[in-house]
Batch of 2 targets.
Target 1
Amino acid sequence: MSGQIVTRFAPSPTGYLHIGGARTALFNWLYARGRGGKFLLRIEDTDRARSNPEATAAILRGLEWLGLDYDGEVVSQAAGAARHAEVAHQMLAEGNAYKCFSTQEEIEAFRESARAENRSTLFQSPWRDADPSTFPDEPFVIRLKTATIGSTLIHDEVQGDVTIRNDQLDDMILLRSDGTPVYMLAVVVDDHDMGVTHVIRGDDHLNNAARQIGIYVAMGWNVPVWAHIPLIHGPDGKKLSKRHGALGVEEYQAMGYPAAGMRNYLTRLGWSHGNDEFFDDSQAKEWFDLSGINKSPARLDFKKLENLCGQHIAVTEDAALLHEIQAYLAAAEKSPLTGNQQDGILRAMYCLKDRAKMFPELLEKAEFILSSPPLSMDEKAAKTLDPVSRGILRALTPQLQTVSWTKDELEAVLNRVADENGTKFGKLAGPLRAALAGRTVTPSVFDMMLVLGRDETILRLTQAAAYEGS
């Protein structure tokens, strides 16, 4: 297939952007972006009863968080109803579709009889080859005239060649009796009109492809390249559901996963490039291809997700990381960082990024810079501030007044004070962490002192030396 590659993501606006849908969007985005193609977005809102604008907004927010930009305007499938109907009438005029006047009761009676006689319940309309002069003046649907012999071949880039016998396919309805188009027709017309060259979607649509090919053939249109990707399963190998944890991508943002880590993980979920686990967007766009997609369902692995997220946090530029942390706080409905807190986080980022896998973890490590004295002590920190430790802090404070504020000099002073008090620096670290952060799990004592500066460090040590408990 020559010319520009065009992919699309076409969710139904009936809820949030599901993690499986997000991966489908990502695969389409990567395939198009890596080949100078277009990635389009269509909202399949033909089911007016179940579609709602809040769901559309949630899908758009999810795509924005994941960084999946699309080309042009968002296409509404419902807005194209007249065009879809026009195509159905063209097929009717050219003999590739027919009017069917069978009622629901007649169709059900046909199926009951077929079940009783142990034959196929696939409805065979008596109107398929009827003489127009016999048509009653009643409502009708328009059905596709599906081939009755031979088979339909779906050449799929993931599943391989899939053959479906034509006698297994019914004459599907194209237009309902009220003149409205069905989803299966709308999808094909929209994909054709939007110039979609590659349909990359979940393998739950594989059977739909056989029926949709009938419309392409009837209209003389090019059939797109198909790639039906397996669904995502939970860690237990069962279909992904609420019991496995979050399903919507916005929930992952609100839990504090970085978008780059999520993109990396979802790309690797059911696709591989050698042994590469960690990669950035430019590598993903360059490497991603349809042949690397696995045929079997992928399993969600939260440990792997967190490890990749930690690696992305470690290499992300500080200002970009701060921007994403603010977005996380908004998504989690937490208070935003003040200007001073942002400045402090930026100063401390070099010692916060290390080994933080998610934003709550990073902010937990940043508590020493986000808090103002007097610090409230957690239970473990308070226990370390016994009379002996407070005495050592009192002895240390004057020696910090004149020392050069570098890691080597601070280390020398702390080791000397510990030695003079008959202890090791390791024993002094706990009380120092309590004094500087009000807790015992923190970045290194030296990093905190360097970030806080001389005056703030001495103030906190002085207050901790006077700490009497609460």
Target 2
Amino acid sequence: MTTTTPNAIASVLSDLVGLDIITDATQVAKLSHDYYHFSPVLQPQLQDKFGDAVVRPVNEAEVLKIAQACVRHKVPLTVRGAGTGNYGQCIPLEGGVILDITKMTAVKWMKPGAVRVEAGAKLAALDKQTREIGWEIRMAPSTYRTATIGGFIGGGSGGIGSVTYGQLRDRGNLLAVRVVTMEDEPRILELRGDDVYKVAHAYGTNGIITELEIPLAPAYPWSEIIVNFPDFMSAARFGQALSDADGMIKKLVCICPDPIPQYFAALKSYIPAGKHAALLMISETCLEPLAEFVKEFSGEITYQKPAQEAGKGIALAEYTWNHTTLHARSVDPTITYLQTLFPDDKNLSLLEEMYHHYGDEVMFHLEFLRYGGKARPASLQLVRYTTEERLNDIIRDHESKGAFIFNPHTYLIEDGGMKMVDLAQLQFKEQVDPYGLLNPGKMRAWLERS
């Protein structure tokens, strides 16, 4: 179902002859969707939303041409990376053209500490190149192998690496973006400093990101480790202590309480039923002190993969962050999830209270990250879904007790994580997308600006 007329689409495609255009209905439908089906609330809202055509530019000049054609004929344009998001960020609500950025993959330059790259580059491929000079990307989602850097900046918030470097929104984690506008005469703009946040995590609603400049981190030899604990709070407090330890070089601290590890088919032999697991990525230089941490919290190391085997066999990162939800749903499709930041409390009192209160209905999978300069547990809870009303009750209960919910059951930017209007993003959209053609329907501030 679209609100775009066939004549307008035909006119746009006529203007774009010679570009890589997809009109096959099956392919267009596939490239219209992401992992929105993680949410039983979003499923009925988005399942019948499709674009009319997909265009795959190979350079910025083609992006300009596509933008100009869409403005000329007043056709909506939705930018897409690999489509690994979970909130319908790249699903076109009003049809139109889908701009698939995945052919724009060039690394413009890299040097110690920073890299300049086109928006369609896959994170894993980028990381492979930067590691050749001893550096790596600071953080990545669990969809690291397939996700694009432009999609991550446009729709992501943090991930593996956030336990050390915080979130994308933190100053210093994004240095520059280059965007194409959707004005009568589209322009190319370079945003630096705080101006980058005008388009970061805006779902492509106010500019087409073509290039990014991001900082890099020193590339350590990461060992992957599984530690088992007899009870959840021992595992959680171990996670907090390890995340707080300034001398420990870490990339991932993930806590999965029983029964979550039983959804991980490839890991079952390392995590017996009834055990609560920590999935870790730790520098090999820190393995001795890690053993002391494990002993202190009555844990047991059951799996350890050396850094030289990275890329072979099991990748623990692909059982963490939103991949935890993916594995659980592959076994039980009725499971959905929440995203929660718990208060800064080293005793984890609220987490313990909620864990005992909800039992098996809400499973408190934790990802530790730095927030405001402190290590905090974020929970990507697995929820046994019954009704939308019950899900909303669970959300309200968390919020009333001081936990902050980043709601993954809405496609509106403001209703998910921000919970407020970002005036800078709205004003930028008014300037560079005056007809509201970029990914329409996703920015509440634009919809309600009158």
